[in-house]
Amino acid sequence: MKEALKKRTKIFAHNCIKVTEFFPKTYLTNHIKMQLIRCSTSVAANYRATCVAQSKPSFVAKISIVIEEVDESNFWLEFALDENLIQKDKIEFLLKESSELTAIFMASRKTASTNNK
């Protein structure tokens, strides 16, 4: 499961980067593009960090960062859609993936937190 999620988060980051190429070239979209690239790649990088966490509290702290970053990715995708910067059909799969990843990581955090008590 760990290796599958490493791969899945990396693919998510790659796909978020690729989709930004569809954004129009403006100052606003450049900002949104960079924010989406930053947080989506952070999902993958920080998930890898959870895989080598030294303790349960460390895992919980690191997975919490992953949750925040994937939720932020979802925010920027929704924002781009709300501002008509991209067509829904081009990012629908990323919105779905960010929601699924959020649910997976929240469940992981809950399990780790429960088992930590």
Tell me the strand percentage band.
under 5%
Tell me the structural class: mainly alpha
Name of the CATH homologous superfamily: 23S rRNA-intervening sequence
Level-2 CATH architecture: Up-down Bundle
Structural write-up:
The protein has 117 residues and is mostly helical. It has one domain: Up-down Bundle (de novo design (two linked rop proteins)). Helix content is 83%, strand content 0%. The chain is built from four helices and no strands. The protein has helices spanning 2-19, 27-50, 56-82, 88-115. The chain is elongated, with a radius of gyration of 15 Å. The model has no long low-confidence stretch (mean pLDDT 95).
Key terms for this structure?
single chain, about 120 residues, mainly alpha, de novo design (two linked rop proteins)
Entry summary:
The protein is mostly helical. Helix content is 83%, strand content 0%. It has a single domain, classed as de novo design (two linked rop proteins) (Up-down Bundle).
Give the SSE layout.
Elements: H1 2-19, H2 27-50, H3 56-82, H4 88-115
Protein name: Four helix bundle protein
Pfam family, one: 23S_rRNA_IVP
InterPro entries: 23S_rRNA-intervening_sequence, 23S_rRNA_IVS_sf
